[in-house]
Design goal:
The structure is a single chain. The chain is built from 12 helices and 10 strands. By secondary structure, it is an alpha/beta fold. The chain is globular. Strand 1, helix 1 and strand 2 form a beta-alpha-beta unit. The protein has a 10-stranded mixed beta sheet.
Amino acid sequence: MPPRLAGSYLVLETTNQCSLACVHCTVAEGPAHPHHQQVGFMPEALLHAVLADLAACNARFDALIPFWLGEPLLHPAFGTMYQACLRAGVEAGTFGRLELHTNATHLGRDRVRVALNSAPLPQTWHFSLDAATAETYRQVKGRDQFAVVETNLLTFLDEQARTGARWPRPVFQFIVGENNAHEAAAFAARWEAACRSRGIPVRTAAQDVPPGSDAIVYFRQLDAPDAAAQVRANRAMRDTMAALGVPLPRPHATPPVVQEEPGVCGCFWKSPVVGWDGRVTTCVRDNRFENLLGNVHSSPLSAIWWGERMRRGREAAARGNYAGFAACTGCYIPRSANYTDILPEEIRAWA
């Protein structure tokens, strides 16, 4: 049976097609980025095959994230695929919770009906908003969809309040950058008021979503492409949260951004990523599939993720050696405060 590690999550990209073009996302690069030279949807049968494989080997991840570099609500079979993910968590115990990320442009009434439920599996929907005004929204998100998104989210909150559905837990997400930090206070006030006026408990948090089932206005630090940009992102996050009086629970927004020696990147143990076309890699930062491990169209995910290549890769990564994994050799994250933690005892559990 595969080891069960705290903080583990499986990313399943149901589509790489998106309705927006956020400046901090590869979608903004269009076909110039290899991840978006071809767009498509994960076949429903492929998702079922992955879930069945994981159930058969009694695998368990803390979370399933059916999202990567596209808008999941665009998938024509979104409803049935979401229900399949719920069943995998409830019936097979494959996942401890379900975490969806959406920009809410396509959060119509049909998707709201799918979303609202009281299943015995915690579910969180992150609504990626990043702005409090239409102008900043357009600059950050690349499209004029601010009014549509606000309307969709208010309808969602109305229905959740009316039905009393336990799930999903709404998280109103704001990725703090130099381009939008000035709107953080207005953003918090807007969504706190929207929840409270409907009798929905809400609080504001930064960097980590706290445990619970109440709504969260959530400020997240920008994951920058290089160490120099990360310094500026750290400063923007730290200064903005200080102005709001929101504590930072972890030292992600404080120096040093880069350490002399690389840490052990927990992605090799905790977070496999499956693209819409079945390709598997080690990390969501590897959006070019430079660390390509295989394809679930031809091999089960369990064989790929717990196979010989990854066994050797984990042995080397545990020593800070990422040779043979091209996406890792130029990545500063294992030398930064942003890398995914893993304990020595957890590494030994895989031996």
